[in-house]
Amino acid sequence: MTTTPLIHIVDDDQAIRSSLRRLLTEAGFEVRVYGSTGEFLLEPLPERPGCLLLDVRLPGPSGLELQAALERQKVGLPVIFLTGYADVASSVRAMKAGAVDFLEKPVAPDILFASIQSAIVRDMSRRAAQQAEDSLHERLVLLSAGERDVFDRVVVGKLNKEIAHELGISERTVKTRRAHIMTKLGASSVAELGAQAAQMRRRSGGERTPKLD
Amino acid sequence: VVTGAAATDRDWESGLRGEVARLKDRATVEFLASLPTSAVAKRLGQLGEDAVVFTPGYFEDGDGRGFMPREAARIMAASATAPVYGPFSTFIGIGIVGGRMPSYEAMGRQAGDTVIKLLDGAAPASLRLPEVMPAVTNVDWRQIKRWGASEKEIPSDAIISFREPNLWETHPREVVVTVTAFLLLTGLAIGLLIERRRRRLAELAEARHRGELVRAMRLAIAGELTGSIAHEINQPLGAILNNIAAADLMLKSGEDRRGDLRVILSDIRRDNLRASEVIRRLRALFAKSEVERTPFKVDEAISEVASILRSEAQRRQIAVSFRGTMDGIVILGDRIEFSQMLLNLILNAMDAVADVPESRRSIVVSSNRIENGVAISVRDRGCGVAPEQLPKLFDSFFTTKRGGIGLGLSIVRTIVEAHDGRVWAENGREEGAIFHVELPTAVATDTLFTETT
After folding, report:
1. d(CA B368, CA B375)
2. Which of these, B237, B247, B361, B390, could form a disulfide with B318 (CB 3.0-4.6 Å)?
3. pTM of the entire predicted model
4. Which residues of A touch B236 (CB under 8 A)?
């Protein structure tokens, strides 16, 4: 995975596209420009940290609609809106949907750069978290069904005695399985195990730790 | 005093000489007796302002020519430079002013009375004829006027001949009717003039109100388009700012980037012009306030409206297409009001398709030449208009929109009618509504433009 940030610009205005590309290139970013939401969706999205500078009003589907589509497709690319006219309704909708910023053109370069920086930081941490989650998922696969039952209960803070009682197994078996789990997941402590599980819960938005298919 | 040479004339002369002796203290009396008619005429033609002529006429003049006294008097009246008077009522009408004259009519009546009495068996000896003939003053009105005599000095019992009877005397009823009618008509005319003036003032006030309302609604449109307008101006401004920041970074890099900087400068210039073009277009639509009637090209006005609405249509995700050409056809009127009228219709259509699926969010604006005019229609694919609402669409304060105040279409009608045109609406055969506008053209060709431009 390349770590140079890549900035995507979707704007139907040629003057905006070329001037933004020029500015961001001068500032050391790598830039891709698109004239419409369709053009953006047709290009494969490389696995690189970055952000999307998105116009609101576009021919065909609008920027807000693209943002919603990316959300549905679980594409976590941070979005910064750049609009010629920031009406309240659009800005509220955009920010609620998780936009990094909603900026009105003409936008001062330092504000734009600050916004891009924070979007990239956000994307990088998202990617890192994603990566950790992915590796946790990979390792969870290694657990046996019995170990998984114990894992689910350990991460919610249950005592060995309770777990043994719930699963109808001996406390000793619980201890053995816990040791296996620690080894397989590469966790050094129960606390670390809990943190990993909590992170997974947050990201999936569910109450429970996700079950693996 | 003029008398003649015949025996009767001489009797009259001597009678008259006796009579005039009474006047000796008040006037100088000159007798023209037994003179040739030509001499009489000559002398009478020399008389001054203070003279008067009296004559009983004569039967024979100094030359021995015979006359009827009336004819002699006629000649005298014709030649005299002073008023002529005579003793016989038969002289009235030949040019004499008048005189104290026996009334032949009264005499006839007396004779008649006498005869009746005789026939009734009265004894002739018992009947007495009057010693003095009844006499009355006769005057010829025309001569009174001619000599400038005072009307007041005519005795009240005088018989005035040849006075044009006035209308009041001959047709009193007609006069009353006519005068009354005249007065009524005059009163009516004055009333109408006052009314006309009042109406004119009212019309002026109404025109002023109309102008104010139309302008106010123009501002409302401007308000409605604020988002699009800001967008259109901010776009080039954004590009300019980006380019300036990029140029800044290039200069800070310390490298020689003159080529890039030149490109940037030309981009900035282009974007600047673009922003000012937006402003110019808007000023053309919203800044002016006086209503003007000047010839303008319809297609130019339409394409201006198209460019103003482009961004708004995009914002609302509506396809607006313009069809038909006008080939420089010219209308006489207020171009801004025309644009406003079209803007209103299209914005109205945009509202009509706001809630329909995107595939139907389209508007077609067609313009066509018709005989002596242009026909413009705005067709949408919205839900159409309820048939019972069609006739009321253009009324003020009639609206079917939430939050609408119902002035848009009424303004459209106001503007169209101010341009001697007509506007109406109908539902499309399958969907939506169609608004039609017909306006008369000023001139058939664009000669007016080739002359002025």
Report:
1. 5
2. B361
3. 0.55
4. 15
